[in-house]
């Protein structure tokens, strides 16, 4: 990976370089919200945006895409449909690039690489941009405010210039063809360090999450889930707006003449009530409690068990989109609160008063692992 | 099939219905032959695996393969009409064409079971996947010790593969229990739930594998009986059913705890199942 510096005035040329052979998608100011949308010139970009309503995942995993078409005379004449537009997604924050890396793990790795996702991903370049944290940001929870792979270029805004992290040869070629990249001066290196420090310091008040996966298991029967489940509207805005949610449904459509048809993949959500219904009508997650818990269990524990990372990048979109105020922050704060309450009730190492007085977020006085009795009560209650 | 399909695992391969047998009022046994010869010859499965059955324009349904792996060239599915895809399949006739993709999932550990006694318990439609295992064991009978099979149905009319059971009943080397919980006047066989045949059953826990497939309510009681006989946690196998769409660990529908039933299962041993939050 190389680091070079370009002047901000060179940005239009850089964009033109991408426009030669790509559709360019970037953050656009829509008045009351930001949105990733096609752009044709640098002045259409709102690179100082806070948060787009939808993440860039829609360009890799479209909300609705046709996978196959069936013949009109013989249904079994199957054609695989895969339309791909060469694209660059320009101006993506680190959290969203980390989210793309999670999707890559699911759709490119494994025993069954997904040919549709792969075709799009391979035709997509990503240009990242640094950001300024705002109230809803939670990337500080998991360190996903930084990204070290998954992009072609990453632009760090240093005022008059961009410090560019160059990851891919495609990125390097376009950068060199359109700009005058030069090594960073000592002053620019210092600027970068100051910016990084300021970025990290802005997350000081976030909860500590080291024990979270274990707590998710221990507190599986916790009343918090009943309460959050009651509140959940099953509207699925959380998973639609989530950059890492990738659940989908497969549906068949018949052409109006009743002959040929298509099989499509559409976004789905584990928060929708029918998601786990099986033949005979039994619903394996028939309550809001079970659905909300399952979604967070997947994000904060089970995805990590399989892929090594949390399935949350702290982008903050669900903080905005959830009408019932259910998001990683509220979940984490409640779990730590309930953990403290339990430690008190079980008379653990920490005295009742100490544990009760400990902030919901960080209880350094308490042991890192609740005693076995707590764990038993957790899974058996 | 997997290698040939690996380019696009969503693509179903056309298969012709070669035989349809009515089993009960709701269940039929279908036999399919994949049309593409390379795909057909490359198709290998283990008992307990499933395919995604496609009816073009209607959708897909995961169905266990009920033919034995030793029977090649044909794929047998035992299907209950319970919704749009399965209902439409029931209205099809021999010669009609459907799509199949798979096989998916992890089946029963046949090679591990070889050389052991087996205790196979099925309830209701659970006989469909278990039939594949029974037939496989039947075909390689000399490699197994004592074979005990218990199959429970609600009424005599719900019993599937009765002819086959009658055939096996004559064999000395199959200890067969066919039970119904709601007998009619003509029923002369055993009455009760499958758990009943554990009474007096002699099991050598060190050399016995258990396998259970049936409705969720059955698992707890049958596992309990197997544990009472001393069979180790990891020698009791069971198959789980969840809503499935992709069969490839992606769509999320079949996720339970940290596992995807479609790729990590559908067959799990009890030790694994105990560790899946919410599985049993
Ligand atoms: C691994 C595995 C193996 C299986 N093996 C067999 C087998 O060998 N034989 C067999 O007959 N079946 C088997 N099944 C069950 C079979 O997959 C279902 O019966 C089938 O998927 C039903 O599909 P359908 O299109 O016919 O029904 P659908 O039209 O999908 O509906 C079936 C029922 O499910 C409910 N339902 C489904 N989706 C929703 C939703 N989104 N919202 C609300 N309700 C919903 C409805 O109540 C409906 O009555 C197996 C399932 C699995 C997972
Ligand atoms: S069926 Fe799609 S993940 Fe299992």
Please describe what this structure looks like.
Chain A folds into 2 domains: 2-62 and 82-201, no CATH class; 212-247 and 271-363, no CATH class. The longest helix of chain A has 20 residues, at 288-307. Chain A has 13 helices and 11 strands. Chain A is flat, with a radius of gyration of 23 Å. Chain A is α/β, with parallel strands linked by helices and 381 residues long. In chain A, α6 crosses α9 and α7 packs across α9. Residues 351-381 of chain A have low confidence and may be disordered. Chain B is α/β, with parallel strands linked by helices and 280 residues long. Chain B has 2 domains: 4-104, Elongation Factor Tu (Ef-tu), domain 3; 110-274, 3-Layer(aba) Sandwich (Rossmann fold), CATH 3.40.50. Chain B has 9 helices and 15 strands. Chain B has helices at 2-5, 37-42, 84-90, 110-113, 127-139, 162-169, 216-228, 261-264, 270-274; strands spanning 13-22, 27-34, 50-55, 59-64, 75-80, 97-104, 117-123, 147-153, 175-180, 190-191, 208-213, 236-239, 255-256, 259-260, 267-269. In chain B, the strands form 3 sheets. Chain B has a 7-stranded mixed β-sheet, with helices on both faces. A 6-stranded antiparallel β-sheet of chain B has the order 4-3-6-1-2-5. In chain B, β3 and β4 form a beta hairpin. The radius of gyration of chain B is 18 Å and the shape is globular. The two termini of chain B are 32 Å apart. In chain B, 50% of the residues are buried. The complex binds flavin-adenine dinucleotide and FE2/S2 (inorganic) cluster. FE2/S2 (inorganic) cluster (FES) binds at residues 244-247, 249-254, 260, 262 of chain B.
Task: Label this structure with key terms.
heterodimer, A: 381 residues, alpha/beta, seven-stranded mixed beta sheet, four-stranded antiparallel beta sheet, 13 helices, 36% helix, disordered C terminus, B: 280 residues, Elongation Factor Tu (Ef-tu), domain 3, Rossmann fold, six-stranded antiparallel beta sheet, 23% helix, binds flavin-adenine dinucleotide, binds FE2/S2 (inorganic) cluster
